[in-house]
Design goal:
161 residues; alpha+beta; five-stranded mixed sheet; globular; disordered C terminus
Length: 161
């Protein structure tokens, strides 16, 4: 977790891990609460893993990664200047590409402050693009990727009405 991030309750670990068999899961992930001043908003994690080809579907701090998997997929700190705080998504994306087993739990795992380091829409879009396109910088690829993101977002909002 990062500065300003906390577990959503003191029972969240017990709820997730007690009496559950996670032997077939590599990554367990769930929902989060975004705190913006006095307002709280539940950020529901997505089920569609295919969307990891374009952007995160859950908050990295609302997940648990199996130790032996994480030891194999270490943070590549040489990319820190290029993708900054998106190193978490970089690992999540590579886990997805390596066919790791993601399992969503119906649980709010953590709370985080909206006004954190990663609260920058344009930077997030750029970093997500770099991560999902193997760090290739191409205007043509970026426009294609961006249009896919817009199409996805429009479809999501269309079904929420």
């Amino acid at each position: 977790m990062n500065c300003g991030d906390i577990f959503s309750s003191c029972n969240v670990l017990t709820f997730i891990f007690e009496n559950n068999d996670w032997t077939k899961a590599d990554i367990i992930y769930g929902d989060a609460i975004q705190i913006d001043g006095r307002r709280k908003k539940i950020i529901v994690a997505g089920y569609d893993l295919f969307q990891l080809n374009y952007h995160p579907i859950y908050r990295h701090n609302a997940s648990f990664v199996r130790t032996q998997i994480h030891k194999h997929f270490l943070f590549d700190l040489s990319l820190r200047k290029k993708i900054n705080y998106a190193l978490d998504f970089y690992i999540i994306h590579h886990l997805y590409k390596a066919d790791a087993k993601f399992v969503k739990v119906n649980c709010v795992i953590c709370s985080y402050l909206k006004e954190g380091t990663s609260n920058h829409f344009i930077k997030n879009m750029w970093y997500n693009y770099l991560v999902t396109n193997d760090m290739k910088c191409s205007i043509r690829l970026f426009i294609k990727w961006f249009l896919m993101m817009v199409k996805f977002r429009l479809n999501v909002f269309k079904y929420k009405k």
